[in-house]
TrEMBL record:
Residues of the signal peptide: none
GO CC, any one term: anaphase-promoting complex
Chain ranges of the Sulfatase-modifying factor enzyme-like domain: 744-1062
Keyword vocabulary terms for this entry: Cell cycle, Cell division, Mitosis, Repeat, TPR repeat, Ubl conjugation pathway
Gene3D superfamilies: paralog of FGE (formylglycine-generating enzyme) (3.90.1580.10), Tetratricopeptide repeat domain (1.25.40.10)
TPR repeat ranges per the UniProt record: 335-368, 369-402, 403-436
Protein name per Swiss-Prot or TrEMBL: Anaphase-promoting complex subunit 8
Biological process according to GO: anaphase-promoting complex-dependent catabolic process; cell division; positive regulation of mitotic metaphase/anaphase transition; protein ubiquitination
Chain ranges of the Cdc23 domain: 21-274
């Protein structure tokens, strides 16, 4: 964004409240803070007071302001004023001693607010002073950090007694809070400090300590259930500062812009907005903001160390020199001035002098984190890694939230080639700055050095999506794809690099090359356009890109693009220029290496490089044969469109005619190369015809599979093929029971996002199932069961509701013959004709999976204890009823596939493309899912350890979202009706579907009329199953891939069909909110304070969410509407 636009976007909003009220409150706060010797808070409040817009004649004046001293009893005025005088002279122990008092004064001095505050604060500062003096005598920073304030324990005992007696005012509570913080009792400290700001909101020092504690406790909003901020405008300053501390710079900037409406002249707010721009790496906007601040307040040094960092990064030595001179004139004995001077010397390359000034800054303030970090940078420049590590570690000890210290440690260990250690520190930095491309690039480099290419690729992709200002990710992405053999992806990234360097001719030629969504990690869907010129050795990277693209286009037979790349390389020096002149590149591009290609006797004479074809055309133009060349080129184009007959003799005759008539050497070269080009196209056309025939054979084979001759038959197990019976009616459940709530606890949050649904054409195995095409889909966030529903959980449901599954109600269900005992086998006289190994077994159900003589307990069972195995023999009706009992739902097919991918794109399985994991990446071979091993359907060797179902917590998590058994084990029902076709309009073909669902019944009728779908043998439509099962084998039912689908009627069941539930984000939030409000209602005395959110309200809320797309806004509204 343009700098002017950035600054314009920070225009003030509406004022918070009346300026007169703010002025009166701040005036009183300044007097009170000044009397309390809280100089930092006094200065902060005074600046805010001065920043208010001019008021009327009735604004507060010192004469009308309330007085502080009259609140003191006459007997306490003398000791308090004397202690205050000692306090001002930094004689803290003496001030505390004065307020000990004699016997007559002891009670008043130990209970009155001002004596208690001054005595406790004086003792605290006396202890801090001694701690700093002792630490200064210790050379080891780690040992110095272990020196503590010896007064804290005594102060805690004294103040805790007064706290229990409720004798502490706002300022004394602040002292008690910082004492608890010093004792590392952070939760108690925050609670007391919050009480302090409730009593006295204008004490900015208390707010800063709350920010520090909240950030340390990882309370990202500064609120927990037991935290209640005061309803005061100071809470907005707190929220803004906390957001800035947590590197949420956009949110912080918006809050500060809102605050600036009430305090338009505030230097503090201006400096914070400038810091937000700096953290967002918008250095131009930040520099302009700091320069405007300096014009308004030229003697302010606070935050100017950040301004000096900007000048250092932009290498503006003159401006940095001027700033350093001004800082020395203002006050050279401040940490900020020392940092500015140190940056100036560092920019000049005088690193030893820079270290001297950074050490001076630390002598003035040992806890000034930027000085430790910058000193670590200087030691790195001096190759003193040990000192750099000490400096960075000290910075981390002082402030664990400063990502720069973690990043510096990572750089140091990377310099030492300790990449595993470096990766740990880079991860810490990334957790603090997840949107900073530098963190991801640093992690990627470590993974690359550790030969973990896939992880490196993911990190570089993330860096590219985060807006890689240093342009490090693009060349490395291209190289990784190139080394992995994915040349098309590599060409796409190299093309983007060249686009940024101004090679428009190459980019326009390469416009047809785009990253493939089915490529190594499907990075095409998140491509971000780059802006500005690339830096950091772009010349060499551009040469690398041109060289790769030249060979890439040559291998694909794209002469014009390869020629353009070679022409650019001729302007370079080195081996690349010689490679561009290599005639073998011409022959490779033109197909001369193809089998049976025409070989000219003049081959040895063709020594000119491919890029000189243009000059050959110019010579031909001078000879007047432009029309002949155009005719020849047209013939080449026509030939390139030929798919069938071999017209090579016609081209050869045309070549001979032109050669004999014109006898032009330039023409000879041009036409001969063109002839080879056409020959290459013909060879490619013949290969294409063969491939088309292979594709047709695969389609024919797939049609054969559809007829049932090479399929496991799990799609043929409808009730129409076995027992007829009425379909069960929907069962109603009232309320949400405790058992259902427990079942809902183990769900995983699936974030909102975008992915490509379906399988690409070259990897579709069952076209009749509708596995493709690939289509973009945008998903809202939702929740999904971590595990498949177990037998134990189903028993809870059945006992509580008395529900009978379709298998129990209708008396049978399907089991594969190999799993039945001889006794059960003898009782069965019916089979499914197309798949005779499937038998309708009487009395088979979820608690008797193999019929009457089977059970779930380990005693007498061939398969051991199976209570923790997935429940089976579940029809779609059963699964839907169970989900409704939990107030959940079956996942849509889009939800299931999106959750199974876990953020990966274009993969066969949740973890990648290999059956056993990442064997190709050096990882140990291990089973990742429960599928059939052996010869299907006769023998399952159970090499994975499970001849039938596996426990629900086996094989996992299968993806990064923590989901188990998404593929294999048992089929899982979805909520969608089955259709083998997917209809995309022109409107959503590119933009993507949003939370798509399967077709409705009325649409299925139309699909049947169109001839794309048939009802099953019982005249029913079918529901979609996903994930495959332990019965799947690649030779028969290769449907344990993510994109694979199967289908069955709603009342169909078998011993490999189970269930997994999903829940919308709102439903999950509503359940949690109702639980909290219900507990409060039980504890409340009198009428219940909350009304629980019912289904009618949920419908209104869903409509609201659909319109607003803003969950936070809804939560605020829900909290208001739920209160009576």
């Amino acid at each position: 964004m343009d700098v002017a636009m950035e600054l314009d976007s920070a225009k003030p909003a509406r004022p918070l409240r009346d300026a007169a009220e703010l002025r009166a409150e701040l005036h009183e706060a300044v007097l009170r803070l000044s009397f309390a010797e809280l100089h930092s808070s006094t200065q902060w409040a005074s600046e805010l007071l001065a920043a208010l817009p001019p008021g009327g004649a009735d604004e507060a004046s010192p004469a009308s302001a309330p007085s502080i001293s009259p609140t003191l009893p006459r007997s306490l005025c003398s000791p308090v004023l004397l202690a205050k005088a000692h306090f001002g002279m930094r004689e803290y122990s003496r001030a505390a001693h004065v307020l000990q008092g004699g016997p007559a004064q002891s009670q008043d001095l130990h209970s009155a607010p001002w004596p208690v505050f001054f005595r406790s604060y004086a003792l605290y500062l006396a202890g801090e002073k001694r701690r700093e003096e002792d630490a200064a005598e210790v050379s080891d920073p780690a040992e110095a950090s272990r020196i503590h304030n010896t007064e804290l324990k005594t102060l805690e005992e004294d103040l805790s007694a007064l706290y229990r007696q409720q004798k502490l005012d706002g300022l004394s509570l602040y002292v008690y809070g910082i004492v608890l913080k010093g004792l590392e009792l952070k939760e108690d400290a925050r609670r007391v400090l919050l009480e302090s700001v409730h009593a006295f909101p204008c004490n900015w020092s208390a707010w800063l300590d709350i920010i520090s504690i909240s950030a340390d406790l990882h309370d990202v909003n500064g609120r927990c259930e037991d935290v209640r901020l005061p309803p005061h405008w100071m809470s907005l300053f707190f929220e803004a500062a906390l957001q800035l501390e947590l590197q949420r710079n956009d949110s912080a900037k918006e809050l500060y812009v809102a605050l600036r409406a009430s305090f338009p002249e505030s230097a503090y707010i201006a400096s914070q907005i400038a810091t937000c721009f700096y953290n967002l790496r918008n250095f131009d906007a930040s520099q302009l903001a700091f320069e405007e601040l300096r014009r308004r307040d030229p003697y302010r040094l606070s935050s100017l160390d950040t301004y000096s960092n900007i000048l250092f990064v932009k290498e503006q030595a003159a401006a940095l020199s001027h700033l350093a001179r001004q800082a020395v004139k203002i006050d050279k004995y401040t940490p900020e001035a020392c940092i500015i001077i140190g940056n100036y010397y560092s920019l000049k390359g005088e690193h030893e002098k820079a270290v001297i000034y950074f050490r001076r800054a630390l002598a003035l303030n040992r806890h000034f984190t930027p000085a430790w970090i910058l000193m670590g940078h200087e030691f790195m420049e001096m190759k003193n890694t040990a000192a750099a590590i000490d400096a960075y570690r000290t910075a981390v000890t002082i402030n664990r939230r400063d990502y720069r210290a973690w990043y510096g440690l990572g750089q140091t260990y990377e310099l030492l080639s300790l990449h595993f250690y470096a990766l740990f520190y880079y991860r810490q930095a990334m957790s603090l700055r997840p949107d900073d491309a530098r963190m991801w690039c640093a992690m990627a480099q470590c993974y690359d050095h550790m030969d973990r290419k896939v992880e490196a690729l993911k990190c570089y992709e993330k860096a590219h999506r985060c807006g890689d200002m240093e342009r490090m990710a693009l060349p490395r992405l291209a190289r990784l794809h190139r080394d992995h053999g994915d040349h098309r992806q590599a060409a796409a990234y190299y093309g983007q690099m060249l686009e940024q360097s101004g090679h428009s001719r190459i980019v326009s030629s390469a416009s047809g090359v785009r990253p493939d969504p089915s490529g190594l990690e499907s990075i095409a869907s998140v491509r971000r356009p780059l802006a500005g010129a690339l830096q950091g050795g772009l010349a060499s990277e551009s040469v690398e890109a041109l060289r790769f693209l030249m060979n890439f286009f040559a291998e694909e037979g794209r002469l014009a693009e390869a020629e353009a790349c070679a022409t650019q390389l001729l302007d370079t020096t080195g081996s690349e220029k010689d490679e561009a002149k290599d005639p073998s590149l011409c022959r490779k591009a033109l197909g001369s290496g193809a089998e049976g290609a025409y070989v000219s006797p003049l081959d040895s004479e063709i020594t000119f490089p491919m890029n000189q074809l243009a000059s050959a055309n110019v010579e031909a133009d001078e000879d007047g044969w432009t029309n002949d060349i155009r005719d020849f080129q047209k013939a080449c184009i026509d030939m390139s469109d030929a798919v069938g007959g071999n017209k090579w003799p016609e081209i050869r005759c045309m070549t001979a005619r032109l050669l004999l008539c014109r006898r032009n050497l330039a023409m000879l070269r041009c036409i001969w190369l063109g002839a080879l080009y056409v020959r290459g196209l013909l060879v490619h056309a013949e290969e294409t015809c063969a491939q088309n025939q292979n594709d047709q054979d695969e389609v024919t084979e797939a049609a054969t599979l559809a007829d049932g001759t090479q399929d496991c038959g799990c799609s043929s197990l409808s009730r129409g093929a076995s027992t007829k019976g009425e379909r069960s009616e929907p069962v109603r459940f009232d309320g949400l029971s405790d058992s259902a709530k427990r079942h809902n606890e183990d769900m995983v949050s699936i974030p909102a996002g975008r992915f490509h649904m379906g399988e690409r054409k070259d990897r579709v195995h069952f076209p009749q199932d509708g596995e493709g095409p690939v289509r973009p889909v945008q998903m809202s966030g939702f929740w999904m069961d971590r595990f498949e529903v177990s037998n134990e959980k189903w028993q809870d449901f059945a006992r509580e509701t008395g529900y009978l599954t379709d298998a129990e109600r209708l008396g049978d269900s399907f089991v594969a013959e190999t799993y039945l005992s001889e006794a059960v086998n003898k009782t069965i006289h019916k089979k499914v004709d197309a798949v005779p190994w499937w038998l309708p077994v009487p009395n088979a159900s979820w608690h008797k999976p193999e019929g009457i003589d089977s059970s779930l307990s380990g005693v007498g069972s061939r398969y051991g204890d199976r209570w923790n195995h997935p429940v089976v023999h579940i029809s779609w009706n059963d699964a839907e009823a169970y989900c409704r009992w939990r107030k959940a739902s079956l996942p849509t097919e889009a939800q299931w596939e999106y959750a199974a991918r876990g953020g990966l794109e274009g993969k066969l399985y949740p973890w990648g493309d290999t059956t056993f994991g990442n064997e190709t990446e050096g990882m140990p071979r291990r089973h990742r899912m429960n599928i059939w091993q052996g010869t299907f359907p006769k023998e399952n060797t159970a090499k994975d350890g499970y001849p039938k179902t596996a426990p629900v917590d086996a094989y996992g998590p299968q993806n990064d979202w923590g989901l188990y058994n998404m593929v294999g084990n048992v089929w899982e029902w979805t909520g969608d009706w089955y259709s083998p076709v997917h209809f995309l309009t022109d409107k959503n073909k590119d933009t993507g579907l949003v939370d798509p669902r399967g077709p409705e019944i009325e649409e299925l009728d139309e699909i049947v009329e169109m001839g794309y779908l048939k009802k099953d043998s019982s005249g029913q439509y079918e529901k979609i199953k996903k994930g495959g099962s332990f019965m799947c084998h690649k030779s028969y039912c290769y449907r344990y891939r993510i994109c694979a689908r199967s289908h069955l009627t709603a009342d169909g069941s078998a011993h490999h069909t189970g269930v997994r539930c999903a829940m919308s984000g709102f439903k999950k939030a509503k359940e949690a909110l109702n639980g909290i409000m219900g507990k409060i209602n039980v504890r409340a005395e009198g009428p219940a304070p909350f009304v629980l959110i019912d289904d009618a309200y949920e419908d209104r809320a869903s409509a609201y969410l659909q319109k607003k797309k803003d969950m936070m806004a809804f939560r605020n509204q829900a909290g208001t509407l739920a209160l009576r």
